[in-house]
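Structure (tokenized):
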């Protein structure tokens, strides 16, 4: 963007028309900001053993820091969303990225696991702003199929860094300490802080901001939860995240400890799975508008069920081999990896469509709706991590079984959705020529 364009912008100027900022440019900016959460989740996964050894922490402590991270993201999002509805998108985003940056410095300097966990919790509270607010910005400037396409572009951009993050983390561990990972995270947070302060446009004009009060906030969330179109789509998005977080929690133990992958090798495998998610999200951008969004979502959930069933079948076969003293390696791991590619790849389609469908009928509460979805995702993510942590990790069966459970619940939510999806309703509003923010249609 030209400097003159930045100078001409009022802090409260809406970006609904996006005349001076093409949608692609907005997607790149929002994607870069949204990637703070995923990259901070993924980059230190290969460092779990080194982290525990350096801080003299008991086995399993690294997994607990991941659960703490998820808890902080859940708490932070449910507050950052309403704050962004009340004060606009830029100020809460600026505060969040600054907190994340300072807390990442604290993680890098921590001398024990308790100090590290405390700063990790604080970092997650700050990072929650970058997860919930960009999605609300998408709803501010677009709706219907256009919102689904923009969300898919956002997933593409935010996916580039998480693909590289574990590989980068493993590479760093080959030359230096795990602490360098968090110094790099602090540098990334500083860049995001500068971008928010200097470049990010305000997408929510003052006239559309809502008054914040505890009673109004509670009423807002109760209203959202009672909307069948919202809650079923939110649950689909939530259990899609449940599948992904089950993988994140279990995969380091399965592939590094059980199958003998190096941290760098695990990072490369992680990149393959993330590339599947990104590719699926871009396929979604092509399909939206040509195929009904509700049908796309249903087919994707069905594919996720098939993929996780395949994972479970292969894992059971592997479990019998492991009990017989033969740990699978090399070509024997291909069936499991292929099944995981199918199962995890679908989340790149499920997430954007479910989120857009959930928020479409709530344009004036986009921040709260996005926060509700994000909080649900990370609460379920924390539960997935705790659940997996309680199960034995001597075979990949627990990972596959828990992921299958999430896929089955998503399928149930697809069957319980209203006959007319919320995303379709929003598109009908657009076709009728009503402005964004008009009262949603009742169906």
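Design, position by position:
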């Amino acid at each position: 963007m030209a400097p003159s364009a930045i100078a001409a912008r009022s802090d409260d100027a809406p970006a609904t028309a996006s005349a001076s900022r093409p949608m692609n440019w907005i997607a790149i900016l929002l994607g870069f900001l949204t990637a703070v959460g995923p990259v901070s989740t993924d980059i230190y996964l290969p460092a779990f053993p080194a982290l525990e050894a350096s801080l003299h922490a008991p086995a399993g402590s690294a997994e607990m820091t991941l659960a703490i991270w998820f808890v902080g993201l859940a708490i932070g999002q449910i507050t950052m969303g309403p704050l962004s509805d009340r004060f606009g998108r830029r100020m809460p985003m600026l505060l969040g990225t600054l907190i994340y940056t300072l807390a990442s410095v604290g993680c890098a300097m921590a001398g024990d696991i308790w100090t590290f966990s405390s700063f990790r919790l604080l970092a997650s509270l700050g990072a929650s702003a970058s997860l919930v607010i960009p999605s609300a910005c998408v709803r501010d400037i677009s709706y219907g199929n256009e919102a689904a396409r923009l969300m898919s572009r956002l997933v593409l951009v935010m996916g580039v860094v998480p693909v590289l993050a574990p590989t980068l983390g493993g590479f760093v561990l080959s030359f230096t300490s795990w602490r360098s990972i968090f110094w790099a995270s602090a540098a990334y947070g500083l860049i995001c802080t500068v971008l928010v302060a200097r470049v990010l446009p305000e997408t929510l004009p003052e006239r559309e901001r809502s008054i914040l009060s505890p009673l109004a906030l509670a009423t807002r969330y109760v209203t959202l939860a009672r909307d069948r179109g919202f809650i079923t789509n939110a649950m689909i998005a939530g259990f899609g995240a449940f599948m992904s977080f089950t993988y994140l929690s279990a995969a380091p133990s399965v592939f590094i400890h059980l199958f003998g992958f190096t941290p760098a090798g695990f990072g490369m495998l992680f990149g393959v799975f993330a590339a599947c998610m990104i590719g699926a999200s871009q396929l979604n951008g092509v399909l939206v508008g040509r195929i009904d969004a509700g049908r796309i979502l249903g087919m994707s959930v069905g594919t996720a069920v098939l993929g996780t069933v395949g994972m479970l079948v292969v894992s059971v076969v592997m479990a019998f081999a492991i009990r017989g003293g033969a740990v699978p390696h090399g070509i024997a791991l291909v069936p499991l990896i292929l099944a995981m590619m199918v199962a995890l790849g679908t989340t790149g389609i499920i997430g954007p469509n479910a989120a857009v469908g959930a928020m479409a009928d709530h344009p004036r509460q986009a921040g709260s709706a996005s926060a509700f979805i994000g909080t649900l995702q990370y609460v379920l993510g924390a539960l997935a991590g705790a659940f997996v942590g309680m199960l034995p990790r001597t075979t990949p069966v627990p990972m596959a079984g828990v992921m299958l459970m999430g896929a089955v619940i998503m399928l149930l939510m697809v069957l319980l959705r209203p006959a007319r999806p919320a995303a379709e309703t929003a598109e009908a509003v657009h076709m009728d020529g009503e402005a964004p923010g008009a009262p949603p249609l009742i169906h």
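Reviewer-requested clarification: Residues 321 and 327 are 7 Å apart (CA to CA). The longest helix spans residues 228-258.
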